[in-house]
Amino acid sequence: MRLHSEWVHTFASPLQRAAAVAGTRTAVVCGTTTVTYAETADRCARLAGALRDLGLGKGDRVAVVAANCHRYLELYQAAPASGLVLVPLNTRHAEPELRYALIDSGARALVTDRDPGGLADNVEHVIRIDRGEYDDLVERADPVVLGEGVTEDDLAGLFYTGGTTGAAKGVMLTHRNLVANTIHGLVAIGLQPEDRWLAMAPMFHAAGTFAALATVWLGGTHVVLPVFDPARALDLLEAERCTATIAVPAMLAALNEEQRIRPRDTSSLRVLTHGAAPVATEVLRRAHQLFPTAELVHLYGATETAPLVTASRHEQDLLDLPQGRSCGQPLIGVEVAVLDPLGQPVPHGEVGEVAVRGPNVMQGYWNKPEETARALVDGWYLSGDLGRLDEQGYLYLVDRAKDMVVTGGENVYCTEVEEALYAHPAVLEAAVFGVPDEQWGEAVYAVVVLRSEVTAEELIAHCRTLIAGYKVPKGIDVSAAPLPKSGAGKVLKRELREPFWKGRDGRIA
Q1: Which of 144, 154, 377, 388 has an alpha carbon within 20 to 30 A of 325's alpha carbon?
Q2: What is the distance between the alpha carbons of residues 110 and 107, in angstroms, rounded to a whole number?
Q3: What is the CATH number of domain 403-501?
């Protein structure tokens, strides 16, 4: 292997280090399969060779539709490390949505653990995990040297956004974007070589892989849960003595409920991170009570920022302080600003659009120059989130710009109303959004899922004790079914709003 003449880190770097310093250490535990770092390095090199044998070359896209597994982690590392571009796709998407991403990305190969159906017509090669084709290719191929001919500026992945607010977009992230943010995250969270990371968030989502390179670089262990289920997650955490994980808010609430009903020994858990969507303070209080050994860490970011932007460490100690309602301070290496509609910074405490700058910010949206131009301005990524900064640099998110309700000329931030609803002990899930109103333009409306019996009228009365009258929901739908969610666990407010706004002009549902 030739030595680089300059300091360069790509997706090959973490695995090369782990194989050198922790070759015999367990890299992945996935069901009954246990793989060391030496074995992982060999399999990744052979996987890269197999993809090359299929005729795939630098810059070609390789899509994956599969549940979490050790093979997914291999592909996540080997494809970019060999110059290919990984395209992780949402396993919950319908065939038309997946077909759109395959065609839009121009993927030449699809790796999957299920029948691809008509998707097979959109790619040259289909590699089935469930039929043993993947392992056969790996075992037969000759290894190649990972990282050769790959630069930090090369595209590592196209990560399609969840489409919760519109059509999915392919976020272009380079090796530099993802490696830089791995270093940002290592500094922020303090993971250690001894950590055992419970990979329970879906790997097609930024939250599912944000710690992948970090864990490998340290020589830590991934403990993989194929598909999230709160009972199975807690059983695995207990059995494998996992020390760290991430949960989106819906997952965290489900873990709380399962742990409350059937407690496990979770004393090994020292870091419990959460992110990807707003979370109610009451959910965090319960998490601290139910997982007392774990430090709560709030992470904020976006797919477009690879993904981390801010972190709030020891969040359990801040819940009764103003900072407890923040999502933390910018990570070392990342800049955050809050801007007015003209792109100028607003004073501390005032609300504006959150903007991010740093080596982690995406290159743009694949095949979407107009959307890219709107999102990337003067080196800043304009997030579409509304927030404010205090004098200590803590960032407080108030809402998504598209989720804010304007009723009678007053701005209502849905997260504040959701906080009020979650404060009622009967509320398990809550989503707040705007519906058309002849008098006020929009009215505040809520859909809630309950853990115990309560009426909509009682919930409205409860909210009146906590928030201003114009913020109180004018109506509440008490649902027996869980709230609709994306594959990443985000509540799909678009689906909840659609029946109210269908056929009306001037409002995107």
Answers
A1: 377
A2: 7
A3: 3.30.300.30
